[in-house]
């Protein structure tokens, strides 16, 4: 015995919803269910929807549970993040503090350095792409300031720059060409 459709909708309501929706697959599903409301068999509804009977049954179950919104394709959730809020807070502290060359062996953080730090600290395996996405979500960019030598003297740099006279002069005005 097939699963009955919910009674708070009818075929005309589903057809009206199918006309209004911007989602093509949802409209196709609504039209197939509208045919069932009008007395068509599940096999005919499957032919209208271009699917099998099992998929029509799945549509009926979703429609009965969630209404027309249940027929919209949704992106699957995917795997949960490996970083917890505690990991993120500690990562922000490390980025803000910056590396200590003697301890961390680097003068600026790179993603591979942070991956190694996460492994050493938490035994947390994480890919470069995932960490890049997480760091970007925390509001950081991969751009870094240009490194400067610790002994750089601004006065010596400005004294070294040469000041040359301008060699370009303004051109003389051109004469108008004689007509031929």
UniProtKB/TrEMBL annotation:
InterPro entries xrefs: Homeodomain-like_sf
Superkingdom of origin organism: Bacteria
Database matches in SUPFAM superfamilies: Homeodomain-like (SSF46689)
Pfam families per UniProt: HTH_32
Protein name: Winged helix-turn-helix domain-containing protein
């Amino acid at each position: 015995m097939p699963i009955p459709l919910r009674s708070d909708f009818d075929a005309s309501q589903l057809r009206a919803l199918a006309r209004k929706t911007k989602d093509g697959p949802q409209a196709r599903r609504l039209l197939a269910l509208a045919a069932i409301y009008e007395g068509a068999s599940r096999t005919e509804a499957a032919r209208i929807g271009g699917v099998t009977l099992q998929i029509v049954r799945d549509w009926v179950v979703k429609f009965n549970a969630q209404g027309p919104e249940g027929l919209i394709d949704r992106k699957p959730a995917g795997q949960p993040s490996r970083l917890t809020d505690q990991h993120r807070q500690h990562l922000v502290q490390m980025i803000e503090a910056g590396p200590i060359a003697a301890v961390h062996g680097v003068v600026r953080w790179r993603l591979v350095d942070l991956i190694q730090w996460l492994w050493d600290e938490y035994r947390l395996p994480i890919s470069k792409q995932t960490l890049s996405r997480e760091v970007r979500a925390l509001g950081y960019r991969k751009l870094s300031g240009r490194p400067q030598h610790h002994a750089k003297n601004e006065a010596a740099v400005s004294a070294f720059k040469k000041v040359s006279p301008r060699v370009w002069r303004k051109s003389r005005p051109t004469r108008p060409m004689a007509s031929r």
